[in-house]
Amino acid sequence: MTQLNRGTRGRALPFRSLTAIAFAFMVVLAACGSGASSPTATPSKPQRGGDLVFAHAIDIKTLDPVQAVETETIYPLDMIFETLTETSTNGQSVVPWLASSWDLSTDQLTWTFHLRAGVQFSDGTPLTSADVKFSIDRNRNFNGGFSFLDSAIKDITTPDPETVVITTKYPWKPLLADLALWANGIYPNNFEGKTAAAFFNDPVGTGPFVLDFWNKGVSTKMTRNPHYWQPGKPYLNSVTWTFVPDDNTRILQLKGGQIQLDSFPPFATLNSLKASSGITVQTFPSNLVSYVLMNEHMAQFKDVHVRRAIAYAIDDAAMNKAALYGYGKTNCSYMAPTLSYYDPQTPCLTYNLSMAKQELAMSAYPNGFSTSMLIGSTDVYQEAVGTIVQQELKAININVTLDKVDPGQLYSTLAEEKYGLAYEAWASDIPDPDEQASFMLDPVGGGADSYSTGFNDSQVVQWVHQTEKAFVESQRASLYTQIQVQVAQDAPWAVLQFVPYQYAFSNNVHGFFAYPTGNYHLQDVWLSQ
Amino acid sequence: MDRLSYVGKRLLHLIPILLGISILVFLLIHLIPGDPARVLLGPHAPAKVVAAQDKAWGLDLPLPVQFVNFLGGLLHGNLGTSLTYQEPAVTLMASRLAATLWLLISASILTVVITLPLAVAAAMRPNSWIDHAIRLIPLVGLGMPAFWVGIILLLVLAESTGWFPVGGFGTDFLSHLHAIVLPALTVALGIAPITVRSLRAAMLEVLQADFVTTARAKGLAERRVILAHVLRNAIIPAITVFGLNIGWLVGNTLVVEKVFALPGIGALMLDSILSSDFPVVQAIALVFAVLVVVVSTSTDILRSLVDPRVKLG
Amino acid sequence: MLEIRSLSVHIRSRRGVVHAVDDVSLTLLEGEALGIAGESGSGKTTLLRAVLGLLPRSAHVVHGEIIFEGVDLLAVSAKQAREVRGKRIGMVFQDPMTALNPVMPVGDQVSEGPRYRLGQSADESRRTAMKLLTEIGIPDPARRYRAYAHQLSGGMRQRIDIAIALSCRPHLLLCDEPTTALDVTIQDQILRLLKRLSAESGLGMLYVTHDLAVIAQTCPTVAVMYAGQVVERGPVAEVFSRPRHPYTRGLLASVPDVHRIGSALEPIQGTPPDLHSPPSGCRFHPRCPLAQVDCLDGDFPLLSTADDRATACIHSERMATTPLLSTGL
Questions:
Q1: Which subunits count as partners of chain B given 3+ CB pairs below 8 Å?
Q2: Which domains does chain A have, with CATH numbers?
Q3: Angle between the A380-394 and A316-324 helix axes, to the nearest 10 degrees?
Q4: Which of A77, B15, B92, B170 is the most exposed place for a label (fewest CB within 10 A)?
Q5: How far is CA A307 from CA A389, C51, C131, C271, in A?
Q6: pTM, to two decimals
Q7: What is the mean pLDDT of chain C?
Q8: CATH of domain B93-306
Q9: Percent of chain A at pLDDT exceeding 70
């Protein structure tokens, strides 16, 4: 999974600063003075040229795909390195990308990929199967990062320059989705003879843009790749990502025309931003869902009735209004609605105080108990969630003390499972529900003790394993429905909200689209003059 | 003691100070729970992956060994490599130092520019409405947090008028100068209430001094009396107050750098602490210590230049 | 050259109004040196400040005229008053340490007057200052020019202070206890210097001190002040040998005298009055050995006699027969 819960990180922190509200107010005032906004007539035909400036709240940390963990690093990297497959627009499947087609053997163990003809790296050398093997092998063998998503791969061979054969250890349905992961991005075989460090200082990929400079902590600029395989693209001459940590400053820069794209306007400011002229605000469905985790290594949370009582006691609709300004959506399934096999019929433990009391009465703790809730100290949104949870659980005699810690400590505490309740958010990095299922539900196979909760339902684990080998869509779908229903009943966590990605951009930016996995294709973006 | 040997002596004092700070920072940073590998890899990365990363960074070694390694590197001028950026901490810092120095120096100059006329105007007519206004209005500024002042300045002087860029640092001398005005003003507005008050108080005290009467007895114009006699004496305590506030000033730059998207060392520090990037935090703490000592030494020297009675030593 | 007519100065304080100078009249002839004697708090410094036009913010003249070279200094504009300061009236202060700017080379403080008041160039004013420093007996003036006040001895500082007062060649020099803070030997040098300057350049001088011996040495005429008023005036020799006011007599008796070794000093009884509410009648009556019922009320103006003397005491004829330490009431 992509890191979405870092304190300094933007995405999962929809409400990072109290000043945002006051600021929103000021922006509204300013907007009143500037007159009504008139939507610019959209020219129908993309125009070539222009330089896009894109402000990020977090700095780019590395240009090496296997080392990238933060979304603000990953998305720009996607513009340099491309993958064999790519996430589809709705985020539920893959489309051919560097591989134009593929075949699966009847034993479902051997995948043969046919590379797209005529693809060149940005230095003009043609893409070959050796490059693909080198790149995916490097990620597979990398110690850490996202190599675990390649663990089903047994071997990669290159019968000819246009063909890559991947064999898996067992039938592995999610392979195509796994290959769409940025960490499986393709770079030249053996780094064209350079060391990794030297190569990533001046990287070469097949993507639409080429690195111009990376001024750490300030900005990163990329220019058009003249050898890009999609005809006529990219439209833009260049893209510059600037590092502007302050939410309000990004908004002012956008309004002042200094940037064209704000990667993270706080939810508190969206309504007022919509009112200002020349600016478009858009939210995109994401894979991101927020939860209150319950640590089953503690006796209280081992008790399913306690977990269900807590899930019933939390009013996630009210929380959505209070903390997300209504931009989120309440969710019943642990899965995001954007993922394939999401079942909207999943029965819910929605807010119901009498049910909560009833559940607690059935538990071993009918008179309640005291516990603590782990939240990040650098995030006002988490604080809001914590305070609301604290208030609501009081109604069923569960006394919660808030345990606010720095991100570094937060991660260690979660990993060491030294918490009672904890706020967390998660988004799938691949267009397949498997990454999330094995990570959150399979304590051993997922490698993370079921999202650090200790949740262990052997039936669910078995279903998860079956989905990985199920190549028939209807069979997979029904397995996932079973999983979602069972998890909702077991309530290893209280599901809070499904959170969209929000962007603000100038009206002259066209064609911008964030995929449910979070990434975007700037080769499709153009600026009207 | 002459000024040169005084500077030498202060630089020598720097050595034990730096050693002390190294130990302190090293201990503090390792006492705080939180593993940089864990931060980098996320809370749910498998433990063995985190352990491998720790090992790669040498964080699996016992603390005393790590400290000796750190000190050994220090002696060779090697402050370590950033865990986040995989780049020498010194290089990383050097690239960020410029913006912070620009900010500190411009803010200091602006503070002086704001303080002098206000304090003089207030001290020349104590308890008049001008005096009250000058003493009260900046207090409002003091009560407003720096980020708020910064946002208002951005809104009024950058976004709506376009006179200044909305954050950023520019690429050459002139664009740096253009970009630094608002952040420097934000810092200066934060510190000016303190310096105005202290300079005004010092001036009122000096105005009572006999030598001011001597100067007036010469029939000098009030302007000359204030500038040549009162201000030169009153500025001495004000310099001390300013020197004492340098730490606060440096602390404030952290917030201001964030608001104005300045690629400064404060922003790097904040980021590094949050991601437990030990080597960078250590390196910055050392550089800040050097900065504070340099500034306080400069303040002493400035005082000795202004006040012939001050003995350096 | 200077005539002070019925001058009254009030100082506002936390506890009310201090009648610091009360109906004082004095005349100073061209080139004359007049000593003003009195204890601290008698209003003599305030009187000097009033003449210079540099009263503290809290003080103001309630009544009177200060006519200097034909012009009433209290009636002219602030700008005209400033014109007089430095150029026509100079002042020497009590404590030469605090009277000098600690952070400005002393030479610059001397040349400041010529430079900014007389319109001399930087070089000219420097030469003027050097000449002055030599004139007032500063050895090695070139080196001293660049020195700071704290690097000089007390006597040297006072010489600088005098040089500053004289730097614009004034006609009248106001001296506020200029030797009090100095050693006796230095004191003597400074006094000789002042006397010489006064004699050489026809400089008028108002010399304020509590030290009667200094006045005896410097001034031909003396005025004695008590509680904001002049109580006696006359030629120094006469006043000091045959005082006509009991306060003057008390003051003289409290001065140690080498000619009277072994005899005890005889301080004046009681303490000076609180000038927020001065005593009615003669202000000295609570401490006066001669006091009678008629001293308790009314005004006690300075009454001149034919021998160029004046006293405010209505019982001065009884001075010779009344012991010092008794009270009349």
A1: A, C
A2: 80-192 (3.90.76.10), 285-501 (3.10.105.10)
A3: 150
A4: B15
A5: 13, 93, 99, 90
A6: 0.74
A7: 85
A8: 1.10.3720.10
A9: 92
